[in-house]
C-alpha cells in the first residue's frame, strides 16, 4: 500500500532530521527531506506483489532448468561476491553472517551428540555450497577439519582469504564443486556434511541428496539450514529482504524453491536417512536499536534512494519453523551384515 501524502511528509521529515542531527549541519535538512521523499517514492514505484506465485507441482522432484526465476550465477559477480565478509552485516551476502550465532551452535551440538565426538572434534566434514566460507570457517574455528565446495570461483576466493585471515587455512580446503556431482570424493568419505542456505537454491534436490548420501560414512550426519515455503517466508525473504529493502540481490531466491519441513523429511527418508522433524529448530533475527547505527544507516541509504535497512542483529534459535529453520538427518549405520541401511528406491 502507498503511504498517504501526510504520512509520507512526516516520515520524510523524521528521516531528514535524524540525518541532520548526525552530521550537525542545517543544510542537510533540506537535502535529507528530498532524499527521504525520493526513497519513499522509489519504494512506491516498485511496490511488490503480495500474493505468492503458483507453486511447483512437486518440490521433491527434479524441476526443469529455466522453470525458476532464481539467479544462482550472482555469486560470481564481482560487486556481490565481494560482500561476503563486509563489516556491514546489511550488505548483500554479508547478511548471512547474522545466521551464524544460531546455526553454528546447532550444527556443532548435533554433530557432537549424534557422532559422539570428543572435544577435539575429529573426523572429516564437507560443506556443499560453501559460498564465501561463512559457515565453513566458523566450524573450522571450533576444531572441525572442513572441506568446502562451491561452483562460484569468486566465492571460493573469498572463502580462502577469510580462512587465511582467521588463521584457519590448515583446517580448511576449498575446491570447485557441484551439489549434483560430488564425484571428486569416494564413497563414505565424510563423517558429516553441511548444506547451509543451499537446499532452497537447488532444482534437483533428489540428485543432491543422493550424492550427499553416497559420500557420507554409515552413521554420518547431514546438518542443514533452509527456508520454509510459507506466506511469512514470502513476505520476509522476497517482499521485504529482496524487493522493498533490497538487502539481498534481486532473484537470489525463488519462493517456489523453498522447502517445507515435511518435504525435507520425506526426501531424506527416501534416501536412507533417519530424520525426525521434531528435532528441527527455527531461526529468527533479533533487533538492535542503536541510535548511532540507525543514523549511519539512514545517512548511507537515503541519498541513493533507498530506505534504511531494518536494525536486524544476530539470529537466535526459536521454536517456530515458519521462515528459516535448522535440521539434521543421520544415515543409517552399518547393519550386522556389514551393509548400510536400506538403499533408496530406484
Question: Any overview of this molecule?
Answer:
Helix 1 packs across helix 2 and helix 1 packs across helix 10. This protein is of the alpha/beta class. The chain contains ten helices and nine strands. It is globular and about 60 Å long. The longest helix is centred in the first third of the chain and has 19 residues.
Helix content: 25-40%
Question: Main β-sheet: number of strands, strand sense, barrel status?
Answer: 9 strands, mixed
Q: Structural class, judged by helices and strands? A: alpha/beta
SSE string, helices as H and strands as E? HHHHEHEHEEHEHHEEHEE
Low-confidence stretches: 1-30, 341-346
Based on Cα principal axes, name the global outline. Answer: globular
Number of strands: 9
| Average pLDDT taken over every residue | 85
Distance between the termini: 50 Å
User: Tally the helices: what do you get?
Assistant: 10
Strand-residue fraction?
15-25%
Rg over alpha carbons: 22 Å
